[in-house]
Amino acid sequence: MRRDDPRLPGPQRPGVRLAPPAGRAVAVALAGLVLVGPLAAPARAVTPATTASGTTAEEAARAAERAAAAAEAAWWSDPVVHRAPVDGRVLRPFVPPDGPYGAGHRGVDLAAAPGTAVRATARGTVAHAGRVVGATWVSIDHPDGLRTSYGPLAAVRVAPGRRVAAGDVLGLVAAADHGDPDRDAGLHLGVRRGDTYLDPATVPDLAPPRPTLLDVGGWGAADLAVVPYAAWEGGRLGGVLTHGSPDAAAPGYALPPSPNHLVLVAGFGTDSDGAILDARHLGYDLAGVTHLSHAGRRADADAAADAAAAEAGPGGPDAGPWRDQLPYVAADTWGGVARAAHLLRDQLRAQAAREPGRAVDLVGHSFGGVTIAYYLLHLHDPYDRTLPPVGHVVTIASPLEGSDLARLADAVDANGATGPALRGVLGLLARTDGPLAAAGGLDPGSRTVDDLGTGSDPLAVLADAWGVERTAGAAGAFATGTRWLSIAGSTDIVVGAHRAALPGEASPDGAVPAPERRVLPGGHSGVLATEAVREVVWRFLADRDVVASPGRLATAGGAVLGQGLLLAATVLGDRDAAGALVGPPGAS
């Protein structure tokens, strides 16, 4: 025993009183009862302490250990379901880097105002919470092997090592960019597996909430699968021929190619029931798309109407492509190129007022493409803040150098012998229900047909304006870096492949790049139905490389056919058509 053992005699310790001499006998007697009592009493079982529920403390401890082990196992084995960290749309999509240290955009930027709560996409362990290159970021390791990163953040509420549940608030969106003040905005969400960056849109259920093809609401890859189109192979036999492509039956992209607003301009003889293509096939939600009406905007499409459309939200009755457009019929497309271009300018002014500073991408088919070209070369002012910047232009089967068939149609209509017969045939077609019924709604003598015919005055002025812009360079309409792609149909007899692009090289200062040109499979309208046109348009709008397809045979064949059509127009009395009888231009 130790010297300080309380059972040994020694100095009085605090709180202990010794019995006085007179009471020692009593103390000894009591001690004897204490020592002998247990020996004399009958033996009894020792009962462990129990909990209020009747379970022993030991059993409760073991149950708690089993529950903790089960929870730990579930943490690692249960399915991990990711959800978007904020409700905003995609401002800037994922762009895979060229290499481990190459350029790219290693995530997506989601619209979120400063102060918006940022939530964990799924359960996980905080791997990092702190500053990286001047901004605050949070990274979470998830049991499925993914690491998600969020930034820039303010008021971070987590620390490294902490486990978080899906939907836990990590912090607030900071009022700062994350590397490029001219392009970065909102919340950046990155996803990695090991050292490989992934497109967040490919993670099941992580697609941000957006209108669906079925109804208003959020959707993800598990709810509405988007199967990518098979990669189109472009030209074959050294660019002489063009690979075919199936028609597109469903979307091939889950995200739009850029944060720009998309404006679609349809061609001659169309109406508001038709469209160039379904923008949802390119990943757009309809709130980011406008279909130009050839009848103009509604008279009541003022700020109040636009505010009501914004309040309706994505998918609301006034939030889609026709939000402020009047219904139009085929006759509304007969007024010529200049009229349509002014309608486009009015619509773009309205778009700039609705979303100041947001650039637009313009995509037009046939007459719609010429309308866009006229606007860009005659009416657009990149320094006018009431107009939006133009990021990209895509013209599809557009007679930028004229339509030989339109020139012939005008000659046939003007000829005293053939004109009445042509109009009689068109009248019969208009009364049918067959595929040629739409042709019955065409007016071969309209201003638009005159404008689109090869060698017309408006197209000659357009060509001159293009030459001026190439000389002006950065001081002209292309000052904001607008890029242009012209697409021709390989079997198009309405607009030959040799007529579907403006000629020329880049401007001397390089500010105006040479228009890119591709020949895709299909005829004048059939080219719009293919997966190939969707892939090429998406990649061009995303500033990705587009597979080469010069379509040399289609270009040469179109030139030969065009010469025959112009010769026929000359025979019918259109002497000016003879001026366009030149050798076939070289394929570009």
Write a structural description.
With 588 residues, this protein is α/β, with parallel strands linked by helices. The chain has 2 domains: 90-201, Glucose Permease (Domain IIA) (Distorted Sandwich), CATH 2.70.70.10; 235-580, Alpha/Beta hydrolase fold, catalytic domain (Rossmann fold), CATH 3.40.50.1820. It is 26% helix and 15% strand. The chain has 11 helices and 19 strands. The protein has helices spanning 24-40, 57-77, 303-312, 337-354, 367-379, 404-414, 419-430, 447-452, 457-472, 531-541, 552-571, and strands at 90-92, 108-110, 117-119, 124-132, 135-141, 146-151, 153-154, 163-164, 169-173, 187-193, 196-198, 235-236, 241-242, 261-265, 289-291, 360-365, 390-396, 483-489, 516-520. The strands form 4 sheets. Strands 1, 2, 4, 5, 6, 8, 10 and 11 form an 8-stranded antiparallel beta sheet that branches. Strands 15-14-16-17-18-19 form a 6-stranded parallel beta sheet, with helices on both faces. Strands 3-9-7 form a 3-stranded antiparallel beta sheet, with no helix packed on it. A hairpin with a 2-residue loop joins β4 (124-132) and β5. α6 (404-414) packs parallel to α11 (552-571). The longest helix is centred in the first third of the chain and has 21 residues, at 57-77. The chain is elongated.
